[in-house]
Design brief:
about 190 residues, 6-stranded mixed sheet, about 30% helix
Length: about 190
């Protein structure tokens, strides 16, 4: 094999290896809900000051919507929806005993919308204390509300920033190799 052909083959292999070795972009994996408070299906005694929803990636602040409705259809969200990274918080007012449905719609930083809903129940009890259980039954004591875990971090969230540059480098290497090979063919008589 001649040196120019060897160089071309090495460039093609290097470009293919670059596409395979660098982490794949998680843009193919969409943002998802990773935690909520109060928990879906929970029964809470007392008051619920806010609904918090955590997502696996950051969401766009201006496009987050949360509605918390009672059985009559009245929305109990007070004020603006707060967004900090992947956490969306909605302050609530006038939450009394009853069943509530939380509907949310956010747009992830990759542009994909995420929608969902869940239900929770508030039972009569001492005001100012909040407790939850997964499925409360009559005579069962409730435990304090679990803290919502922060949004996931690690290789999956950091790796998404390498996907496009890896693709760009691969395309540039492959196109440079193709141009070099074509230039070598036209130089020869």
């Amino acid at each position: 094999m001649t040196p120019p052909r060897l160089v071309g083959l090495l460039l093609v292999l290097l470009g293919a290896l670059g596409l395979l070795v660098l982490p794949a972009t998680p843009a193919l994996a969409h943002t998802e809900r990773v935690g909520v408070s109060p928990a879906p299906g929970s029964s809470t005694t007392g008051t619920v000051p806010a609904v918090e929803i955590d997502f696996s990636d950051e969401v766009l602040p201006g496009l987050a919507r949360v509605v918390v409705r009672d059985a009559r259809g009245r929305d109990h969200v007070a004020g603006r929806i707060a967004v900090l990274g992947g956490r969306v918080s909605a302050r609530l007012e006038d939450i009394g005993p009853g069943r509530y449905r939380v509907d949310y719609r956010v747009v992830a930083d990759d542009g994909h919308p995420v929608t969902g809903s869940y239900r929770f129940r508030v039972t009569a009890g001492a005001t100012g204390t909040t407790g939850t259980t997964g499925e409360a039954t009559a005579g069962t004591a409730t435990s304090p509300a679990p803290a919502v875990e922060p949004a996931a971090t690690g290789p999956a969230t950091g790796a998404r920033h390498w996907g496009f540059p890896a693709l760009l480098v691969g395309v540039l290497v492959l196109s440079a190799s193709a141009r070099w090979r074509l230039a070598r063919r036209t130089v020869r008589p």
